[in-house]
Specification:
395 residues, alpha/beta, TIM Barrel, Arc Repressor Mutant, subunit A, nine-stranded mixed beta sheet, globular
């Protein structure tokens, strides 16, 4: 925790189509904004130059939405502008999320040439019927072709995203998808149980009986098989939903799980900077308007960040809870010595009775250096996390 470097996240909220399960801040039918959105991001970046002066950018992650809808020329402009505004660590991890239907070898070669060194492809399934049910606009063949194009373009660090535990999805269907993924040998796999998020079309379909809700027991069966299979394949299970080949853990996401600071740019982006958590307005057009108004205000001596809202000063109690909950998502768990150095208190002083209770249940284990969830504990982690939240009135 000694590094003063930070992460940088750019949110690109545009999609060709909105998936029924998605509750991210993304918009279909707004692609006309893409040509000017990069300029807005760079104007936003300029507003934060002073706040992060002297700190290196260790990782850059472009998420969405579908960042891969942005042309290479504009990506080049964005990266060059960011490098002129911020100081990047040599060899910084620079990642891009992409959908298989928007990729070609030529485009991916362009991304490599302008500085991207990691790509995350949202495959979700290799089963075409499952892809239709998930509202994905690509096929399994297109996903395989996108992966091959990434390799042809020179990407040596590729993540594949998948969703398991779909309504009525038998175990063998999930096994077929994961075996096909392993045959490709990506450096990293992100595997998420399907969740029904409030306000999504999927939630409405489940409420109306059009679609069955995911079965948590079935999802647990899928997850347990996945842990065993990926261990045999040589992947390190380093976070509840993430696996990597040795040396290929996602540095940007590790920064989140270690409760370190990051700056988010873009419509609906979240930040944790200088002890404050905050986000920007959600609508892309309103975000652009308010960034321009802030730039104009700054020129006249104004200080307000008009596009920022929801700022929350993080108290020591909240910081401790965040560090414990996020850190326990990691398979390595909490480095108890580093925790005590950071906060001046031991984990036992803070929650010794709770941890002893969960150790007794077989959900936690304590080593001389770490406190971590067991394999069974990862299935029931939310039960513990709720107990680690600050008491009302203490923050």
């Amino acid at each position: 925790m000694t590094s003063d470097g930070i992460g940088l996240y750019l949110h690109i909220p545009f999609c060709t189509a909105k998936c029924g399960y998605c509750d991210f801040n993304s918009y279909a039918g707004h692609e006309h904004m893409i040509p000017t959105y990069g300029d807005t991001l760079l104007r936003d970046a300029s507003l934060w130059a002073e706040a992060v002066a002297g700190r290196e950018i260790e990782t850059l992650f472009l998420g969405g939405g579908t960042p891969s809808l942005t042309p290479v020329e504009q990506m080049d402009q964005i990266l060059n502008g960011l490098r002129q505004t911020f100081r990047f660590e040599p060899g910084a991890e620079i990642s891009l999320e992409a959908n298989p239907g928007s990729l070609s070898t030529e485009y991916l070669r362009g991304l490599r040439s302008v500085g991207f060194n990691r790509i995350s492809i949202g495959v979700q399934s290799f089963d075409d019927e499952e892809l239709v049910a998930l509202d994905r606009i690509h096929t399994g063949d297109q996903a395989r072709a996108a992966y091959a194009s990434a390799r042809d373009a020179g990407f040596e660090n590729v993540n594949l995203d998948f969703i398991y535990g779909l309504p009525e999805q038998p175990l063998d269907a999930w096994q077929r998808t994961l075996e096909q993924a392993l045959a490709l040998a990506p450096e990293h796999l992100s595997l998420y149980a399907l969740t029904v998020e409030d306000g999504t079309p999927l939630a409405r379909d489940v409420a109306r009986g059009r679609v069955s809700a995911p079965d948590p027991d079935m999802q647990a069966e899928h997850y347990e098989w996945t842990q065993e299979r990926l261990a045999r394949a040589g992947y390190e299970h380093y976070e509840i939903s993430n696996w990597a080949l040795p040396g290929r853990r996602c540095k940007h996401n590790l920064l989140y799980w270690q409760n370190r600071e990051y700056l988010g740019l873009g419509a609906g982006a979240h930040s944790f900077l200088n002890g404050v958590r905050f986000s920007t307005v959600l609508l892309p057009n309103r975000y652009a308007e308010l960034v321009d108004e802030t730039v104009a205000s700054r020129a006249e001596g104004g200080a307000a960040m008009l596009h920022v809202h929801g700022a929350e000063q993080i108290t020591p109690e909240l910081s401790i809870a965040d560090t414990l909950i996020l850190g326990l998502r990691l398979t390595d768990g909490i480095d108890t010595g580093a925790f005590e150095t950071r906060y001046g208190r031991s984990v036992d002083d803070l929650h010794g009775a709770v941890f002893e209770e969960f150790i007794g249940y077989g959900l936690l284990e304590c080593t001389p250096t770490h406190l971590r969830l067991t394999a069974r504990g990862r299935l029931l982690s939310n039960e513990l996390f709720q107990r680690l939240l600050p008491e009302p009135g203490t923050v």
